[in-house]
Write a structure and sequence with these properties.
233 residues; globular; four-stranded antiparallel sheet; 2 domains; Methylamine Dehydrogenase, Chain H; mainly beta
């Protein structure tokens, strides 16, 4: 095989993400087997292992904050319609991560430190929904709308949830709503002026400190994407 062809056939490896409270536990994507799959990397021991193995590959995955679980989205033949699964970081059998939630298109995921998870779903029939899933309890729906919406982030202490939504009807420019786990609204940020201005917002993440409600937000107020801090409280 000529060198130029080797270059294009060389396996690709993505940058790793690590568990927020266990930074030695990382997750990365590689196509070393011919399809992109998820790989676990324990940087304390140097060990690596392939986590997923599916005909059409797997690229959507994350680690729980404590590093105990690897979450990955299981769709059918790459159609992006499926359910979240999880697997112990050390290896083992896959199991449904959100029992009680039917298959859907993914609409964002946020995993709390106490095991509580916020899951966004989307289907042609139901529109967009957001569910809070606590360990050992059935999912609780806290949001529903026909327009597109999804989970942005969960605050460090689990008291606030940031959602991106397009209830104003402009699917290209989202507004942001911060709610509590029971679905009650805390604050709203909408640069579209009810859908009349083409100015979008994007959730970039809550402050990584308990009791700090500040949210890093991407905005377009000066004709380009820039960051700003917003305190919804």
């Amino acid at each position: 095989m000529p060198d130029w062809e080797k270059r294009f056939r060389a396996p690709r490896i993505g940058l790793p993400d690590w568990a927020e409270d266990a930074p030695d536990r990382s997750l990365f994507v590689s196509n070393a087997t011919g399809t992109f799959e998820l790989y676990a990397w324990d940087r304390a021991t140097g060990s690596q292992r392939q986590v997923t193995d599916r005909p059409n590959g797997t690229t959507d995955g994350t680690l729980s904050p404590d590093g105990r679980w690897i979450w990955w989205f299981s769709d059918t033949d790459g159609d992006e319609f499926g359910v979240w699964m999880r697997q112990p970081f050390e290896g083992g059998a896959d199991e449904p991560a959100t029992p009680g939630l039917a298959a859907s298109y993914p609409g964002g995921l946020a995993i709390g430190r106490d095991g509580t998870t916020v899951v966004g779903c989307s289907t042609d029939e139901e529109g967009s929904t957001v569910h809070v899933v606590r360990p050992g309890e059935p999912p609780v729906e806290i949001y529903r709308h026909r327009e597109s919406a999804g989970v942005g982030d969960l605050s460090h202490d689990g008291s606030l949830i940031a959602l991106e939504h397009t209830e104003h009807g402009d699917a290209m420019h989202s507004a942001i709503r911060v709610v509590r786990p029971d679905g009650s609204t805390v604050a709203e940020l909408d640069d579209t002026n009810g859908g009349t201005e083409e100015l979008g917002l994007s959730v970039m993440g809550f402050a990584p400190v308990d009791g700090d409600a500040r949210l890093l937000v991407g905005h377009q107020r000066r004709g380009r994407w820039e960051p700003m801090l917003w305190d919804p409280l």
